[in-house]
Give the backbone structure.
Amino acid sequence: MNDQLKGAAEVEPSWVTVDLAIFTVRSERLMVLLVDRGRQPYLGRAALPGGYVRKNETLRAGALRELREEAGIDGSRLHLEQLGAYGDPPRDPRGRVVTIAYLALGPDLPVPVGGTDAEHAYWAPVSNITSATIRLAFDHSDIIADALEEVRRKLEHTAIATAFCGESFALSELRRVYEVVWGQPLDPSNFRRKVLNTKGFVRATGEQRLPPTGRPAALYRRGEAWLLSPPLLRSNGHGT
């Protein structure tokens, strides 16, 4: 057998899926969207929403469709980007399935509604997954771990934290995003100084929000900059 025929004999059919790691902040905790699988393999096991990409469907369109069908969430208003490809041969017992993982972020997203092959959709604390309290199907724990580190890294160098906030927000709300995602407290005065000294990060709306107690809080919107200069670096060896 020549090399060309030998190579062809080692190739088997493969399939392409999309999976979504969707993060939001709810009740002061970082949450990820999960579904309980309604079919084999891993029937009843928690997993990320996702599924096969249809014929003539782009990867992004497939991701948005799966999010809508499995959780009842309109992903067109989310920050959505490709995280990476996962294709180790043993990741799916049905055969060679390569998944394109997407990372999505949104502000206090609504309660999801399960549909199609998802029996139940719900928000779960990311800490329950990283501590292995929740055991996920396929390699979805690895995908979430990679997605979490990507968000933590991007909080340092980009304005992605604003994707967790509403159209307008107080700096204390933006700081809380950093604290929840990084898992560490930040000094309020130091954080405020850094944000306001980072050109184009936020811009004042001229409006204020009246809290139940305390002084009114000035409101801001995301500015025109995406890359932060200087960056807001983490502590514990990553800077402050």
Q: What stands out?
A: The helical segments are 3-9, 59-71, 126-130, 140-157, 171-182, 188-197. Residues 91 and 139 are 6 Å apart (CA to CA). The chain has six helices and ten strands.
